[in-house]
């Protein structure tokens, strides 16, 4: 990663970060990396370091310094003590580091030598590593191990571009790290939010003329519902990228009507395979093409399988999920078009089985969200002794919408546009829909796609 620091040194006066209303130039970042490397050298006998906390200029400098020192890095953003302990244990963390504005705080966690073969492999090879954790919604989070030098190798060919990004997805998220490293590789400016609510993010976009917003469909919907575009000037946005979950066609249409000067790009990747370069058919379309020389794909029984140069080495706490030939079954269900474009239609784990008939929640949600008065919808399966499962819809409604009348409208829309087995048997009007910390809808069987 020395090439990255050399690139920073060539643009010393360009702002690298905006954080807490302060600008940090690339010259500052270079000095921060030098200082962090000197501090890390006192712990040269250790190979695995955790970074505690979310993005900050100091934490980012520490991350790059650890990579240059060829350490394995474990970003941990949770503040739940038992989660911190379990992640440290799974990743065999030897030193925990917190990046403070006053300096780096090191805590010795373990004196034991590394036991897992993947961690030993990285240390023996002299490569920087990265350990990320899955969401853990269906069991213990999986500890995903990457060779960091392989993961970011493609960033070195990024052209220098004076763009301003919001780094939205979190420090322990493959999509967030992809934004971080690619943005820095092109010498862009990263605006770091202290909070990820729509109001705070919209205020930052307006204040710093942000041009690129990488986020999730759920957050974009929250941005619309908060009507932030009416209170803040968001016209600087030129590119909005979205991923991590299916985008409802009805929501994309509303977004296009609101952000007319922005281009929309659907991204694709998983924590296991890295983020692929993609191209959307158009800003109005949900079809995308994986256009990446380092990524191969195929569709097996409707499921997308990926093989990439940037894919993981394996899991620390589970057997490898890779199929013969190194293919990774993503769990994402897709439609194929003849010209090589794909449409993500749902997750394999989210399928609702109604008497042997398969229902994709995203298809039903898209119909419901087209009904006037609906703000958001989450469709899920519920056990049933006769059919196995039934379709249940949780609906967030506009405050002005009458509950009974809205339920009738939803049922009529579903009867007009869906086969009978896909109709929701139960419709619950809620004040809001639940989202996880990564701004995706929370449902049973949530996967790790990014």
Map the helices and strands:
Layout: H1 2-9, E1 15-19, E2 22-25, H2 26-40, E3 48-52, H3 57-68, E4 72-76, H4 81-90, E5 95-100, E6 103-108, H5 117-125, E7 129-133, E8 143-147, H6 148-151, E9 164-166, H7 174-185, E10 189-192, H8 198-208, E11 212-215, H9 217-225, H10 228-231, E12 239-242, H11 249-258, E13 263-266, E14 268-270, E15 274-276, E16 278-280, E17 287-290, E18 295-300, E19 303-308, E20 314-315, E21 328-336, E22 342-347, E23 352-354, E24 357-359, H12 361-369, E25 374-384, E26 388-397, H13 403-417, E27 426-430
Parallel strand pairs: 1-10, 3-4, 3-5, 4-7, 9-10, 11-12, 12-13, 26-27
Antiparallel strand pairs: 1-2, 5-6, 7-8, 8-20, 14-15, 16-17, 17-22, 18-19, 19-21, 21-22, 23-24, 25-26
Model description:
The chain is an alpha/beta fold and 450 residues long. Among the domains are: 2-151, ANL, N-terminal domain (Rossmann fold), CATH 3.40.50; 351-430, GMP Synthetase, Chain A, domain 3. It has 13 helices and 27 strands. It has helices at residues 2-9, 26-40, 57-68, 81-90, 117-125, 148-151, 174-185, 198-208, 217-225, 228-231, 249-258, 361-369, 403-417, and strands at 15-19, 22-25, 48-52, 72-76, 95-100, 103-108, 129-133, 143-147, 164-166, 189-192, 212-215, 239-242, 263-266, 268-270, 274-276, 278-280, 287-290, 295-300, 303-308, 314-315, 328-336, 342-347, 352-354, 357-359, 374-384, 388-397, 426-430. It has a seven-stranded mixed β-sheet, with helices on both faces. A six-stranded antiparallel β-sheet has the order 16-17-22-21-19-18, with helices on one face. Strands 2-1-10-9 form a four-stranded mixed β-sheet, with helices on both faces. The longest helix is centred in the first third of the chain and has 15 residues, at 26-40. The radius of gyration is 22 Å and the shape is globular. The two termini are 24 Å apart.
């Amino acid at each position: 990663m020395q090439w990255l620091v050399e690139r920073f040194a060539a643009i010393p006066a360009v702002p690298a970060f905006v954080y807490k209303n302060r600008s940090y130039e690339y010259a500052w970042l270079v000095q921060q990396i030098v200082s962090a490397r000197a501090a890390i050298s006192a712990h040269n006998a250790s190979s695995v370091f955790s970074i505690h906390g979310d993005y900050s200029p100091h934490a980012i400098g520490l991350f790059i310094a650890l990579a240059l020192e060829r350490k394995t890095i474990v970003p941990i953003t949770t503040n739940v003590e038992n989660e911190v302990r379990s992640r440290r244990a799974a990743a065999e963390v030897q030193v925990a580091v917190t990046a403070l504005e006053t300096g780096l705080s090191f805590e010795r966690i373990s004196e034991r030598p590394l036991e897992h073969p993947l961690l030993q492999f990285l240390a023996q090879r002299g490569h920087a590593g990265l350990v990320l954790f899955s969401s853990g919604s269906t069991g213990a989070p999986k500890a995903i191990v990457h060779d960091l030098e392989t993961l970011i190798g493609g960033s070195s060919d990024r052209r220098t571009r004076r763009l301003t990004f919001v780094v939205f997805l979190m420090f322990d998220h493959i999509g967030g790290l992809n934004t971080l490293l690619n943005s820095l590789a092109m010498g862009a400016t990263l605006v770091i939010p202290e909070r990820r609510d729509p109001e705070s993010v919209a205020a930052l976009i307006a204040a710093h003329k942000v041009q690129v917003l990488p986020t999730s469909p759920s957050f974009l919907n929250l941005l619309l519902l908060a009507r932030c575009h009416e209170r803040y000037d968001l016209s600087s946005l030129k590119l909005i990228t979205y991923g991590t979950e299916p985008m409802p066609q009805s929501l994309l249409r509303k977004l296009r009507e609101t952000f007319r000067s922005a281009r929309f790009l659907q991204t694709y990747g998983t924590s296991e395979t890295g983020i692929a370069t993609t191209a959307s058919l158009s800003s109005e379309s949900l079809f995308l093409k994986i256009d990446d020389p380092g990524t191969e794909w195929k569709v097996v029984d409707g499921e997308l399988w990926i093989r990439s140069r940037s894919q993981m080495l394996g899991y620390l706490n589970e057997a490898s999920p890779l199929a013969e030939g190194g293919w990774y079954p993503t769990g994402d269900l897709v439609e194929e078009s003849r010209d090589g474009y794909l449409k993500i239609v749902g997750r394999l784990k989210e399928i609702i089985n109604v008497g042997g008939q398969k229902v994709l929640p995203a298809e039903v949600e898209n119909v419901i969200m087209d009904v006037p008065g609906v703000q958001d919808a989450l469709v899920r399966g519920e056990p049933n002794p006769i059919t196995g499962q039934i379709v249940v819809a949780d609906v967030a409604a506009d405050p002005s919408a009458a509950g009974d009348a809205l339920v009738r409208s939803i049922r009529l829309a579903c009867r007009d546009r869906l086969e009978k087995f896909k109709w929701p048997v139960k419709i619950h009007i809620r004040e809001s829909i639940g989202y996880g910390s990564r701004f995706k809808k929370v449902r049973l069987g949530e996967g790790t796609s990014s």
